[in-house]
């Protein structure tokens, strides 16, 4: 039998990462993990996020134990393990060699859109909070080790989800299934305890929604954060997947 395929989707917050997790879980042959490093991140940084106490109580705060579990038996014996990760959860001082054993994918979104969405749930935001700078560092690390790392832009993806999923499945050497395009609404046992604070739209969703119309207006510190992240985003965007719809 083939060894299980462990897929790590590295995103920033307020992307389509939870909807993407729904798509993979709905395949029927894939288990999912929702931000397994989040409890460690909050405990180590002391940051005040919505539901902080619940996240820490429900999760593992030692990143080494998290990494060991991610390398262990696949839950339920599934042949695919989709891991939804946030790049800003990779804190300084954490070893990163475990990432080399995963099939890594980067999920990006225009930082202006990310910031505008993020501040609806948390009043303050920094460039570090939205993960795109860390995505560039992760890409450079993987490429220095000869790893091909697909990059998916959320806006492009939502205009052609099937084409992108087919291309990603082809890259991973697995079959695409139309079950990835639609799912039942509502919560999942796999959702993190932060779902009530961040997942309102995806809990109502039954599939990928069209991209939002442009017209975001940021000002002050919020605009500064987005501007600081734009060069990194544009670098990644220039190397994104471009499948034929």
TrEMBL record:
One Pfam family this sequence matches: Sulfotransfer_5
GO-annotated molecular function: transferase activity
Statement: the UniProt record of this protein carries the keyword Phosphoprotein: no
Key words, A-Z: Transferase
Entries under InterPro entries matching the protein: Class-IV_PLP-Dep_Aminotrnsfr, P-loop_NTPase
Family, similarity comment: Belongs to the class-IV pyridoxal-phosphate-dependent aminotransferase family.
Any GO BP annotation: carboxylic acid metabolic process
Signal peptide (residue range): none
Coiled coil: none
Native species: Luteimonas viscosa
Keyword Transferase annotated: yes
Name of this protein: Sulfotransferase
């Amino acid at each position: 039998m083939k060894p299980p395929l462990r897929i790590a989707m590295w995103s920033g917050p307020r992307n389509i990462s939870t909807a993407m997790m729904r798509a993979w879980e709905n395949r029927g042959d894939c288990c999912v993990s929702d931000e397994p490093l989040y409890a460690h991140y909050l405990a180590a940084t002391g940051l005040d996020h919505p539901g902080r106490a619940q996240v820490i109580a429900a999760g593992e705060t030692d990143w080494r134990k998290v990494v060991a579990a991610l390398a262990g038996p696949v839950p339920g014996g599934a042949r695919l393990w989709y891991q939804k990760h946030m790049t800003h959860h990779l804190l300084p001082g954490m070893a990163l060699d475990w990432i080399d054993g995963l099939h890594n994918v980067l999920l990006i979104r225009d930082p202006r859109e990310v910031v505008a969405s993020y501040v609806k749930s948390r009043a303050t935001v920094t460039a570090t909070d939205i993960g795109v700078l860390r995505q560039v560092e992760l890409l450079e690390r993987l490429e220095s080790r000869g790893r091909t790392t697909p990059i998916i832009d959320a806006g492009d993806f939502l205009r052609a989800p099937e084409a992108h999923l087919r291309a990603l499945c082809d890259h991973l050497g697995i079959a695409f299934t139309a079950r990835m395009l639609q799912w039942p609404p509502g919560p999942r046992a796999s959702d993190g305890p932060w779902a009530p604070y961040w997942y309102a739209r995806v809990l109502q969703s039954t599939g990928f929604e069209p991209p939002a119309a442009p017209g975001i207006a940021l000002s002050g510190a919020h605009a500064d954060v987005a501007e600081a992240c734009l060069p990194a985003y544009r670098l990644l965007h220039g190397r994104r997947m471009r499948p034929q719809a």
